[in-house]
Amino acid sequence: MGVAQLLLAQGANIEAKSIHGVTPLSYASQNGKVDMARLLLDRGANIEAKSHDGSTPLSYASLIGKVDIVRLLLDRGANIETKKKNGATPLSEAAWEERVDVVKLLLARGANIEAKSVVGSTPLSYASQNGKVNMARLLLDRGANIEAKKVNGVTPLFEAAGGGYVDVVKLLLDRGANIGAKSINRSTPLSYALHSGQVDVAQLLRNRGARG
Predict the structure, then answer these.
(1) Which domains occur in the chain, in start order?
(2) DSSP H/E element including 192
(3) Tens digits of per-residue pLDDT, 37-71?
(4) pTM here?
């Protein structure tokens, strides 16, 4: 803190960026340095500064799971629906890594549970694709659309099946996911599992009535 204050007093550029476009506030945010983040914000740091991939300080804090930073940034007016270049929101970032406390906070602050990325992935899609069963359950409990489709017609069940995540597949089926859903190219969750060599998932789907 003392060094940072000295540097700022000497005219250091508070918006200086790394080769990846990361500012001091983003570094503080992803490392959970609340006092540093507060100092930088008090000195006028851009709360919406984006790195080369479109991440803002809130994006970084959400992905890493720094709930105190997320709360600070939201209290200071950070855009809760900010999107990276791939269209991922802070909620999607947190869902991907199963940052439960961050997800609960973002939802409590009004984050869109159905926000879609460039390819149409929702937070539930992210959780399912990464095998995060507890996160998928939380999102479903909060009303996430179990049949949300990506631009290619793929639902969360496809994502979980293709990844071999048996627990997530079971959860989605138990919650009523359409086992016979078809993507734009006529693929099914079963064909996704078979194509990826996910034998256990394929057997589970067949036991639940999937054909093919």
Answers:
(1) 1-83 (1.25.40.20), 113-211 (1.25.40.20)
(2) helix 189-195
(3) 999 999 899 999 999 999 999 999 999 999 999 99
(4) 0.91
